[in-house]
Design a protein that fits this description.
7-stranded mixed β-sheet, Arc Repressor Mutant, subunit A, 40% helix, Rossmann fold, alpha/beta, homodimer, 244 residues, DNA-binding
DNA sequence: CCGACTTTGTGCATCGCTTCACAAAGGGAT
DNA sequence: ATCCCTTTGTGAAGCGATGCACAAAGTCGG
């Protein structure tokens, strides 16, 4: 399920799927502002893409535009939502209630459309029993039961790196086939399971690469950056845990 | 700087750059376990990629392998680190100290290699003055001063969506050209500025899409999706037009 | 009803990334 | 030194994504 484009994906390219949420967000904003119809050009600008690309993307869903006019905002919202599977409610479980897990649990946009946090799980007895964002934190022991009984189909992994693969295995055994992984490890899963990863340090490193290029190009002076410890930054004590 | 591949990038493709951190992480793990040399095959497995791809990626940095033997782990770590610009220290400022900002500030892997949190900034007087991960939270008013004086070259945006563009503009004016954006908005910046975005809800929506496909495939009852435009769309406002 | 104008949907050329497959290069044994 | 084995580095084919450019299709004013 990792492969770029599926045989029977009804021909919706992966690259298009990745952009649909972007269009959807832009459309929601427009709907709220009372915009009734929008041209591919305007929507493309709002989503930060090329208008030809946008039209081609939308054409994969069907012909939902009107030539000479544009797209009906509400209708398009519905069509994209349906295509993305947001017309139903997805039960999500968050495993690992460290700093990040807490942040995710409190993340409003989570619940907003299509997703519902159905469980918070952690191995640490210290946090089990806490209430976060109105949810009780349960012990990881009940993982399988929770997944089964509450119909969890998407699991968010926010555990320390060391625990991620083990939890992942259990989650997969329990029948979950969609995982969003925040732990900095390469998870190994069967082909039938979809894993998407969000990795802060990778993003920073990519930025650093380009930044270095920029600095080295024009007129690289002194590599500043390290110069002054400046005020209180010097006493950055070791952070609590390796937990993300 | 958004363009996929730069003319004078010394020819390192963007796709390759995005994988180098992955290789680096795998190599660090191996170095810690005392592995001296590694073959492209083994490293590829550890990083979750195809071995031919890995070799081609590494070949963009130079010929650092030994035929018949493999790659020297430590040497390769150094070469990749240098290429990514991790041999210097990058000062990072985190703007927006909500749940996510806090989690990021406490993220250990942050400081570990090449990156140093140099400032935490927020607009809310309630949190300004707090100490998080050993750092004092300062008011957003001093943004420009902090960026200038502490040599901040990478800014992490963890503000609410509504504030993101404004903060972004200020950050860019202050001379920052690398931004990691967690706010769910499309930032508009000059071409010379690199923006990478991390967007939880987009990732979830992509997972939902594939999950829906999986559910609809094997033996889903209804399915719809394919054949006809389906009439139940009526519950949303009427489509601009219908039929054929 | 017509003609000018707008905007969609898409064929096509192009581009960059992936993957295969293999020659070239090194190590080690005899 | 020679042969065999391993593994790298890369030419070339294949594949999907991008963006241009335009015909088709629709709107609107007269």
């Amino acid at each position: 399920m990792k492969s770029p484009s599926h045989s029977r994906d009804r021909g919706i390219p992966e690259a298009t799927v990745a952009r649909l949420p972007l269009y959807l967000r832009a459309l929601h904003g427009m709907a709220e502002r009372g915009v009734a119809t929008v041209s591919s050009e305007d929507l493309a600008v709002a989503a930060g893409v090329n208008s030809a690309k946008l039209r081609k993307d939308l054409s994969h869903l069907g012909s939902y535009g009107t030539r000479g006019v544009g797209y009906d905002v509400e209708y398009l919202v519905y069509q994209i939502s349906r295509e993305l599977g947001l017309t139903q409610d997805w039960a999500v479980a968050i495993v690992g209630v460290g700093n990040l897990g807490r942040a995710l649990a409190n993340y409003g946009g989570f619940v907003s459309r299509g997703f519902r946090v159905a469980a918070l799980l952690d191995a640490d007895p210290e946090v089990v029993g806490d209430t976060i964002a109105g949810l009780n934190v349960e012990h990881i022991d009940v993982l399988e039961a929770v997944i089964g009984r509450r119909g969890v189909s998407i699991v968010v992994l926010a555990t320390p790196a060391a625990a991620a693969q083990e939890v992942c295995d259990r989650v997969v055994s329990a029948g979950v086939t969609s995982i969003l992984n925040f732990a900095p490890v390469v998870l190994s899963v069967p082909d039938s399971v979809d894993v998407r990863k969000v990795d802060l340090s990778i993003e920073l490193q990519i930025l650093a690469f380009h930044e270095q290029r920029k600095a080295g190009g024009p007129l690289m002076a002194v590599d500043s950056a390290v110069s002054e410890p400046s005020e209180q930054t010097g006493l950055l004590t070791g952070p609590p845990k390796e937990d993300l």
